[in-house]
Amino acid sequence: QVQLVESGGGLVQAGGSLRLSCAASGRTLSTYDMGWFRQAPGKEREFVAAISRSGVSRYYTDSVKGRFTISRDNAKTTVYLQMNSLKPEDTAVYYCAATLGVTWPPRGYDYWGQGTQVTVSS
């Protein structure tokens, strides 16, 4: 089992940048494919990005391609989401998640963090 804790959220102006971190404890991070999701007020949770166990494969939802970058440091047991050129519509609670699944991109996730709030002002 793995425990996930997100950090790095905050308030930023449109066009600005934030880097989210997801610290993992428990089972070795390299065991899991990892993902980032977000949930805006009144909306369903949506997929943002995923990264494979080795970090070689990455997958993004169309709305963040070219602006967000997912990365991982298995030695530091941390996954990152670098968010550039932020827009007001990126405002949401961002969650990281882990999966032991073998499909790519992952179809579901087994473990979730508590989330970190990102607010982008116009």
Can you describe this structure?
With 122 residues, the chain is mainly beta. The protein has strands spanning 2-7, 10-13, 18-26, 33-39, 46-51, 58-60, 68-73, 78-83, 92-99, 111-112, 116-121. Strands 2, 4, 5, 6, 9, 10 and 11 form a seven-stranded mixed sheet that branches. The protein is globular, with a radius of gyration of 13 Å. The mean pLDDT is 96.
Largest sheet: 7 strands, mixed
Low-pLDDT sequence parts: none
Strand composition percent: over 45%
SS-based structural class?
Answer: mainly beta
Radius of gyration: 13 Å
Quickly count the helices: 0
Terminal CA distance: 40 Å
Question: Which term fits the overall shape?
Answer: globular
User: Helix proportion of residues, in percent?
Assistant: under 10%
Give me the strand/helix succession.
Answer: EEEEEEEEEEE
SS elements, strand count: 11
Mean pLDDT: 96
Write a concise keyword list for the protein shown above.
122 residues; mainly beta; seven-stranded mixed sheet; 11 strands; globular
Give the SSE layout.
Elements: E1 2-7, E2 10-13, E3 18-26, E4 33-39, E5 46-51, E6 58-60, E7 68-73, E8 78-83, E9 92-99, E10 111-112, E11 116-121
